[in-house]
């Protein structure tokens, strides 16, 4: 894969999609990995660092503004030219059953941190001497309201719209911006968000396939990558049905993924 980037910052690198990016980027790319799990960060550093590749790790909680500021301070001395704005979480279930604290926590990470980091890093990356890119990890949930995953889907719509708008604003600079919109992917996300119910296994994609398709899209300078044909169909469906019918079907489908316990 011909990717020109020299220094990649990956948020949410300790697991799932972020970890797969860390493993899949060319071995010539210097990695800056961040997450809260310091043990996992150290393991990845030991595994991925070589004589020719440096791996820096930064522990930061992106739900806290101090965590974001610490991360920005730590990357200041690096010339980041690939930013994978990936860290995020979901919360499955009826809106009224969630605590407000949990909802606001999700918004802080999925919206607040994504915005704060883009705002701080994009102008510098656009001035970078050479090509630069930011990938915002949204979701196929960004294309439609999702009852029982309401706030999560809303945060991901925000991420998709932010990425597409910034892609237009930075057009013509050296900075390319794209949104990655995966559908269900085998990571820790399902279990962490409490939705390990009875979704058919076939509807889940392998995390390596998701990242491969994303990096191919990045090579071709795509603006939005929806990995997998099923997800591509899903992303287009809301355009072809009345919104209320779409909301009802989405609610039925999402409810089927409730934890079986
Ligand atoms: N898996 C799916 O089905 C799916 C589908 C569509 C979109 N996505 C999106 O893909 C992205 C990655 O999710 P994943 O599937 O890889 O899930 P995952 O395996 O649970 O990984 C989530 C990552 O986000 C980090 N993170 C969560 N809260 C954080 C916080 N407060 N501060 C710093 N880092 C935090 C976690 O790091 P620590 O635990 O170390 O803090 C972890 O590295 C998310 O934005 C998610 O919305 C996932």
Account of the protein in words:
The chain is of the alpha/beta class. The chain has one domain: NAD(P)-binding Rossmann-like Domain (Rossmann fold). 44% of the residues lie in helices and 13% in strands. The chain has nine helices and seven strands; from the N terminus they run βαβαβαβαβαβααβαα. Helix 2 links the parallel strand 2 (30-35) and strand 3. The radius of gyration is 18 Å and the shape is globular. The chain binds NADP nicotinamide-adenine-dinucleotide phosphate. The site of NADP nicotinamide-adenine-dinucleotide phosphate has 28 residues, from helix 1 and helix 6.
SSE layout and pairing:
Blueprint: E1 7-11, H1 16-24, E2 30-35, H2 38-48, E3 55-59, H3 65-75, E4 82-85, H4 100-126, E5 132-137, H5 150-169, E6 175-180, H6 189-192, H7 207-219, E7 224-225, H8 229-236, H9 243-255
Parallel strand pairs: 1-2, 1-4, 2-3, 4-5, 5-6, 6-7
The structure holds NADP nicotinamide-adenine-dinucleotide phosphate.
Comma- or semicolon-separated keywords:
261 residues; alpha/beta; Rossmann fold; seven-stranded parallel sheet; 7 strands; globular; binds NADP nicotinamide-adenine-dinucleotide phosphate
């Amino acid at each position: 894969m011909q990717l020109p980037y020299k220094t990649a910052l990956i948020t949410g690198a300790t697991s799932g999609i972020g970890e797969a990016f860390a493993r899949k980027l060319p071995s010539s790319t210097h990695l800056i990995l961040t997450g809260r799990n310091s043990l996992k960060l150290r393991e990845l550093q030991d595994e991925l660092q070589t004589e020719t590749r440096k791996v820096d790790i930064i522990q930061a909680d992106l739900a806290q503004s101090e965590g974001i500021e610490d991360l920005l301070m730590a990357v200041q001395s690096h010339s980041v030219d690939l930013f994978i704005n990936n860290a995020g979480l979901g919360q499955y279930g009826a809106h009224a059953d969630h605590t407000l604290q949990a909802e606001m926590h999700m918004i802080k990470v999925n919206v607040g941190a994504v915005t704060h980091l883009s705002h701080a890093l994009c102008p510098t990356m656009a001035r970078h001497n050479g090509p630069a890119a930011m990938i915002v990890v949204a979701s196929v949930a960004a294309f439609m309201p999702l009852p029982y995953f309401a706030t999560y889907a809303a945060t991901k719509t925000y991420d998709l719209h932010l990425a597409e708008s910034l892609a237009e604003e930075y057009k013509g600079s050296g900075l390319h911006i794209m949104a990655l919109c995966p559908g269900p992917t085998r990571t820790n996300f399902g279990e962490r968000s409490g939705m390990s119910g009875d979704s058919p296994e076939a509807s889940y994609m392998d995390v390596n396939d998701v990242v491969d398709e994303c990096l191919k899209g990045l090579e071709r300078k795509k603006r939005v990558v929806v990995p997998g044909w099923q997800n591509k169909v899903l992303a287009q469906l809301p355009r072809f049905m009345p919104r209320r019918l779409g909301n009802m079907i989405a609610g039925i489908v999402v409810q089927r993924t409730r934890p079986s316990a």
